[in-house]
């Protein structure tokens, strides 16, 4: 069976930067370590006044197509995953295609276009759709373009304000891919939840504590479901485990839960038993409360062991490097985590061909998905081509007054005119409104 997976990836971050410990924390009267150590964030990325989800997605896709030498006829479908859409009918993918048609001789009239919505997991669902489209024999030799693009904006003063971010990830899904092959096996955990939602409003309504609980519960279910079709997951099976990353502090919780699961009934649990005891089993307790108390105590002890710390440092921490500098990208966050992991492997001169990643995606509302990916022989060339370090370094660093202005500029409920902070070059930009209230775009040389 021919491998299907991600052939290439490109990342486009918003052109503005908010320094959390240096600018945000002083204005909030908070200890900077609340953000750097608590949330695990150093900075957030923001779109300039001429940027939005269309420009970021189109710019990432354009860079990918140029680098791969692609023309519109090479692309058979364009799927955009976002939870920042501004139209309830016309999909963002049509806007992106319209942008790209400004710079190519051909068009995308032949391409199937759509928009996926299920909070942050929609990016992975779009990957699944593209995978299935190729596997079903409907691609006619063409590839799929999957774009995850979001502006994660919260109301001023909201608890989530420090986790804001904006950017896009474009992925080319093909047969015989250069980057990673997607597994046919998947695991799901899904339930009707109200942990995070936007009922006809721009800013999300969030139950923070509930959101963490739901995230962990659905991830556990997805991992168990994945094992039911792929076999038991063990610590040594995967080199990296990129998770959905609303902020790195959330991943710390998910990673500990995952580690406890994969070492259960293994030699690792036996080895740790002399130090912290064996994992509590529900049948050994008279009540659920007693079991939960014992489990919480075990988890606290497990977190402090050298064995866990070494695993976390090697398997999880490298997936968070980019996220620390850009904040939450919603649908793109797990795909940023994958890129961050492989970037770390490249910089560490680590041989990855044939190695596996365990991908943990999540979307509020709520659903988690676990699948595995096998790194392909061309991965080094693909990751070398990323220019994310240059993008991060070139961002304009905002003052607090700048931040207040740009936040208002991207608030759909406010009509404000903010001068651009940066000068666009070789990128798509927002170019005003059309006769029916549609957004217009142009390419700046």
Automatic annotation (TrEMBL):
SUPFAM superfamilies: Thiolase-like. CDD domains: init_cond_enzymes. Residues 195-413 form the Hydroxymethylglutaryl-coenzyme A synthase C-terminal domain. InterPro entries: HMG-CoA_Synthase-like (IPR053544), HMG_CoA_synt_C_dom (IPR013746), HMG_CoA_synth_N (IPR013528), Thiolase-like (IPR016039). GO terms for biological process: acetyl-CoA metabolic process; farnesyl diphosphate biosynthetic process, mevalonate pathway. Residues 4-175 form the Hydroxymethylglutaryl-coenzyme A synthase N-terminal domain. Keywords: Acyltransferase, Isoprene biosynthesis, Transferase. Pfam families: HMG_CoA_synt_C, HMG_CoA_synt_N. GO terms for molecular function: hydroxymethylglutaryl-CoA synthase activity. NCBIfam families: HMG_CoAsyn_Halo. Belongs to the thiolase-like superfamily. HMG-CoA synthase family. This is Hydroxymethylglutaryl-CoA synthase. It comes from Natrinema ejinorense.
């Amino acid at each position: 069976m021919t491998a299907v997976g991600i052939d290439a990836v490109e990342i486009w971050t918003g052109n503005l930067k908010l320094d959390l410990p240096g600018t945000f924390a002083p204005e909030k009267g908070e200890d900077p370590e609340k953000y750097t150590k608590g949330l695990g964030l150093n900075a957030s990325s923001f779109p300039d006044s001429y940027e939005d989800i269309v420009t970021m997605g189109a710019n990432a896709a354009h860079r990918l197509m140029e680098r791969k030498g692609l023309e519109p006829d090479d692309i058979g479908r364009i799927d955009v995953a976002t939870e920042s859409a501004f139209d309830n009918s016309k999909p963002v993918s049509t806007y992106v295609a319209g942008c790209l048609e400004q710079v190519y001789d051909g068009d995308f009239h032949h391409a199937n276009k759509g928009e996926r919505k299920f909070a942050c997991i929609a990016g992975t669902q779009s990957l699944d759709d593209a995978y299935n489209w190729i596997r079903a024999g409907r691609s006619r030799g063409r590839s799929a373009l999957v774009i995850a693009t979001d502006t994660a904006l919260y109301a001023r003063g909201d608890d989530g304000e420090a986790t804001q971010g904006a950017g896009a990830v474009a992925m080319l899904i093909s047969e015989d891919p250069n980057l990673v092959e997607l597994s046919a096996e998947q695991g799901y955990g899904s339930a009707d939840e109200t942990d995070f939602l936007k009922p006809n409003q721009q800013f999300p309504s969030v139950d923070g504590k509930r959101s963490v609980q739901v995230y962990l519960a659905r991830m556990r279910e997805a991992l168990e479901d994945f094992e039911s079709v792929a076999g038991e997951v063990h610590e040594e099976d995967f080199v990296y485990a990129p998770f959905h990353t609303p902020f790195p502090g959330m991943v710390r919780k998910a990673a500990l839960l995952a580690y406890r699961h994969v070492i259960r009934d293994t030699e690792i649990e036996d080895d740790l038993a002399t130090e912290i005891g064996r994992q509590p089993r529900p049948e050994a307790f008279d009540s659920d409360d007693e079991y939960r108390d014992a489990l919480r105590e075990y988890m606290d002890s497990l977190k402090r062991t050298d064995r866990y710390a070494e695993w976390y440092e090697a398997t999880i921490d490298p997936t968070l490097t980019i996220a620390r500098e850009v904040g939450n990208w919603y649908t793109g966050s797990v795909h940023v985590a994958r890129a961050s992991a492989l970037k770390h492997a490249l910089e560490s001169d680590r041989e990855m061909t044939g190695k596996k990643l365990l991908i943990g995606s999540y979307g509020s509302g709520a659903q988690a998905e676990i699948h595995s990916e096998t790194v392909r022989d061309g991965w080094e060339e693909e990751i070398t081509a990323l220019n994310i370090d240059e993008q991060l370094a070139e961002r304009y660093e905002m003052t607090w007054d700048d931040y207040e202005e740009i936040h208002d500029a991207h608030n759909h409920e406010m009509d404000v005119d903010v001068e651009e902070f940066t000068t666009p070059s070789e990128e798509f930009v927002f170019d005003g409104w059309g006769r029916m209230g549609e957004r217009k775009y142009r390419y700046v040389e």
